[in-house]
Amino acid sequence: MQKTILVSLIACLSLSAGNITGKVAAGKGNSVVYVDAIAGKTFPPPAKAQVMDQKSLLFQPHIVVVQAGSTVEFLNSDKVAHNIFWPSVGGNKKLTHNLGTWPTGEKRSFKFDTPGAVPLLCNVHPEMSGYVIVSPTPYFAMTDAEGNYKIADVPNGSYTVSAWHEGMKVQSKPVTVSGDAAADFALSK
Amino acid sequence: MLYLPKVIAPSSALAAALLLLMFSTDIKAIPAFSRQYGTSCTTCHINFPKLNDFGKAFKDAGFKFPKDDESFLKVAPVMLGAPAQKEVWPHSVWPGQIPGVPPIGLRMNNFFQFTGANRKRFDALATPPTLPGFIPATDFETGFFSIFTAGNFGSDIAFWVDDDISVAGANANGGLGDAYLKFVNIGRVLKLPTDSLSLRAGQFELDLPVTQARNINLSPYDIYQESNIGAMNSMVPLQQNVNNQFTFSNGAKGIELSGGHTYGGYHYSVAIFNQNTSGISQSGIPYVPSATGGAGGGVGFASDSSFKNVYARLSYRFNLERDAESRNGVQAAGKMGPRDHTYLNVGTFYLEGRSLQRFFGAANSDGTQTILNVREPYSRLGGDFNFNYRSLNVYGVYVYGKDSNLLPVDANGALIPLPLSGSPVPVAFVSSEHATYHGGFLQADYMLLPWVMATWRWDSVHSEADRINALALASGTPYFGAFNSTRNRFSPGMQFLIHPNIKASFEYQFRPRQALKVAGDGVTTPVFAYDAFRVNTFLVGLEFVY
Ligand SMILES: [Cu+2]
Predict the structure, then answer these.
(1) What is the domain count for chain B?
(2) Nearest-CA distance from A2 to chain B in Å?
(3) Which domain holds residue A35?
(4) Which residue has better confidence, B8 or B484?
(5) B195 CA distance to ligand 1 centroid (A)?
């Protein structure tokens, strides 16, 4: 029953939507591309939470991308104590937050309402580094190792699309979707 | 490790004293672990080389993560035998492992010193035509370049070796620091509780309440540098025949049993180690037998007492977190992340040893001389506390030292004046007043920021003999001579981590008063010092480990 609705929904979308594809040149690691906030439009957050793990003194995965309003569950899989805090959200230092510490195998959740990059840090292992990228819209994608990305099923329209990469300046450009669209980015420090 | 003799020839005393002052820190931190685990120094250290609670647990476990060690290693160890080889033992060698990368850490430091204007007072000590040495107000000096390696060979066998490759720009005069194997938790073979029994063998720093080897200050703890050298000064009425070179900062050669944890609960250790009263190696003496061929290319053996010294320490650490789970954890669960516990650690330690004095006795009928060996029992008794609350750590150590004082007597039972002149020859020894000293230190460390630490220390050593020795040296230079029987030193300091592995340290040292000149003949008038002064110093250290 649900499946039928989903299929018909996708069929319906495909009539007036397209994919945004392209390549982000930004050096090593994955980049994140997302459609910026669309005036007058809100999106219900997904019900399922994403998990960011702390394992072997590493944030795994290194980057988690979520839609604004989503909950991220922070798991500690290590038999040592960790901490998670972030100094800012999208560069806004007022949104700094500290989740404290919790035992092995347990999770602590946080709901990210404000879009932007959230640099995750651990105050006992200062080399630990991870990111939650909070996208203002459900239209986002992570690039592959070569920098290629594909944001699927974006409704036709004119948008601002932004590309983020660790340590680089965020770059935004207007993209008009009418069927498929393409946007390449070359990020710099 | 620097093992400078306590009694220094007057001509070189100043230079040696300055060296002692500048280079007796022996700091250790292990970048080798950083490389293997892919983690920062601060995982184990607060302001390296000071260990945090996690670092203490890592060390207790034999340089391993206390739980699940393999899952944290970023460089896989090289297996020296498949684990399944254990099943064929004893028909195969028990499998072990070595670290996947050479577990090597290196360390270098440099110093800069300001010396107070009073240093010019030393010029008065030299009588023409002797020109006194010039002591500049400011001075640069290179420090230690050291290598250290440590890790775990599997089966909970930990190892550590560190060596100063060069000191003050000269090669190899620092020598070996600690070098040992530690068999962690051997008690499991005897079905004892976990971690209740470990064995360490080799050369190591005694299980001191506050480590000298991982001292964060630029200057060493005065009480750990204190040896008990009695006065052999004909100018003073109290004669002492005590010349014991032992200091707590010496590396001990021997074995140690230990158990418990340094991050909570009980901890004990019992060490049995060599005494070397004179600090002299016998390896160059051809007629000293050595199973390794000491005079012919092997190592020599250099202890000078068959009695092996015994050192024992017992401490208990009360972790004071309210929440039970947090209290029993390696680290406390703070609101803002894991942190060191609030704790109170109290401990006591005791050392029993024999120091050797040797004299020529009377000639035998065949013309050979008898040699009198006097083994003077000595002991050191101490207590300590260590209190930590968040960013503040306050700790102190007190030591009482006592050496039996056996004075030589002639055939008539009369005391022979010291130092001995050859006649009359001693035939026996009588017990006299003990040579004692006591003192300790009190230190407070405060972390203002994760990379800024303020330190404050008070060292105090009381020794009558030190003062008398200083007076005896006053015609040379009593740079470290005590004007009073009690030497107090105050050393406030600041330390800045430029990076987790680069540190700039500043330390001001309010030195005790120095005796410049003495008067009195010791017979009609007592010997006394006058024209006393202080030379305070300001020391800057720049250190990096990698
Ligand atoms: Cu961590």
Answers:
(1) 1
(2) 42
(3) 17-40+139-189
(4) B484
(5) 26
